[in-house]
Structure of LANO_0H20120g1_1:
Amino acid sequence: MPPRIHVSDSGEFVDSDGNQIQLRGVNLDPNVKYPITPHCRSHDPMTPSFFEDAHKVSFISHPLKLDDIELHILKLKSLGYNAIRYPFTWESIEHEGPGKYDFEFIDYTIEVLKKIHSLGGIYVYLDPHQDVWSRFTGGSGAPLWTLYCAGFQPRRFEQTQAAIIQNSFIDPRTGKESKPYPKMLWATNYSRLAAQTMFTLFFGGKKFAPKCAINGLNIEDYLQDRFTEAVMTFYRRIRANAPELFEDHCVIGLETMNEPNMGYFTDPNLSEVPKDRKLKRGTMPTAFQAFQLGEGLPALVDTYEISVFGPRKTDTTRIDPKGQSAWLSEDERAEVDAQYNWQRGEEWKAATCIWRLHGVWELKKGNQPVLLKADYFAREPMTGARIDLRYFTNGFFLDYFQKFRGKFREQDTESYIFMQSLTLQEPPRLKNTDLIDDKTIYACHFYDGMSLMFKSWNKLYNVDTLGIMRDKYANPVLSVVLGETMIRKCIRKQLAQMKEEGKKLLGSRVPVFFTEIGMPFDMDNKKAYENGDFSSQIGAMDALGYALEGSNLSYSLWCYCTDNSHEWGDSWNNEDFSIWSKDDLIDHSSSTPTDLKSDSEPDLVSSFSTIPHGRVSDIDTEEEESHWDYNGVRALEAILRPYPVKISGEFENAEFDLTRREYRLTINAKSRENGRLASTLIFLPQMHFPIGQTTIKTTSGQFLYDPNQQVLRWSHDLGLQSISLRKEAETSKKSDDPEGCSVM
């Protein structure tokens, strides 16, 4: 079983002896964003059953099939990974209706986790995942009934542009796109009527939609309570039926919610597209226009395209829903209320936009829409205080976090809670409060904006994504970074800033964990899938690796998708982030660059005579020879990286130079083990540092290498110590360099 994880006073992960450790791995697996029965991926055509059978779906066999687990876990362990972020969705648990839980799915999840546990050495933390609220609003997460709960009729979202869903772009006759689905268009749903309304109600319904009461509760409490109880039911059943997962330190914690969103809050003028909206692509109705479209009224809407320097307006188009409404009619609402046993407050009128109901806008004679409260979501109703990002995070989000955390701690005081606030924004200011304990982890996400939006790795120029998100630059031109070297340094600086910010606002003892970070693989219009040249993907992933290892950051790459294909990527909104693909498997009958094990490889070379302070020999191990399986892993050169598995002391600096095949690590060694030299373990993949072709330079040390686990044990003196490993074209058994030694 993996050792128990602790946290040091400086907010680093450590083992029971105080040695710093790092968690690195993947999100496994985004398949759980959609049900397996019926198999409804985002590129499947939208049929009547998409809505009609939403309460009868099953997610069993997602995210992984039991028979496939060992294969994929072996691949992850071959990469040196020791952690999995395990997504699940609210819909997968409570799709049938409020309080009706799919215990068969939860029990299947337990079997998956038990199988992962039996394979050893993997930590798992659970992620209640969502994107733009639900798959019925273009993403994933919440069940369909939550939209009915808010008074929506999702069947008419397409006509009103309350949400734009990829399924509606698919021709049911051919199964192909009837028109191209633009890159990252799905994310614009965050600024459309359905998702913005749902998040506004979820975080602020009591203050901003007081007329929306259901079964005696405001919709804010109703939605939060149902979500939290669904997650806790899931977690509680796992603990009850598989306590060994927690006792053996396999399952280490639970995340709060993937990428929460602020809805309409902070929008200063509902009649304008907010100036700080960074993603504008395709039609971009203002909030007021979205209200009108939602009630079936036409509107003239601006369209945008993405450029290097931000969104660019391209045209204006007239959208006419022709009277089709995104809201339930009286008859429709009566039907769903009977189905789900809902009793709504008397003030909640059917067939009416929630925001018109609350006086944000009204209809004059002739159905003329008039905006009455342009800053409705930008001011606190009671005090008039301005609602900005900081106010939302330290108010509305914090109220939710406090509720979720309380329910979690009622049943588990030992596991970690992964707190995730708004993406690429400051976390709440919780330093020295009772909402932070020694089992709190700050969960961050990072994606490079240009690479994400253009699906390319531009070595000539890029921009400071974090700086743009924080409105650091008066002019976007000032955010431009030139040259690949400076781009890499810029990304490293952004991640370091996010870590420093977490320590400052949450406390120095809170670890910072990048629970999502990654790069798209369908770069350059999928050229790599035709010619096999993954140099763009390798450059992009290497830049991320360089940035992460510079601050010794733990991370889970987005993602590892067991259903990935070249045609449809991760089977969700044309995203293609998986580091593995079934379409990149190579026939084992032929020799491949990833077939690294060979019986003819020489043993380690003893070089004790070359330097006075060093010695190299094999680790005496009784473990069976490991089989490394990299087949199907993409951009392997950049993903398979050396890193300090365990540091006897504190991390100072690290860098892996992929081009030169050189790894440098500096530590501050502070302890001895039973009177012996302190030992640091380094994952050292033979793909980069092959036997017989690798040299070491170090300030002090003795070395043992386990060729099966690809781990170097470096026993060193106390104080500031450094080690440098480099692959050489040819290496003799004896070196003329008094400070170097051949180790492999």
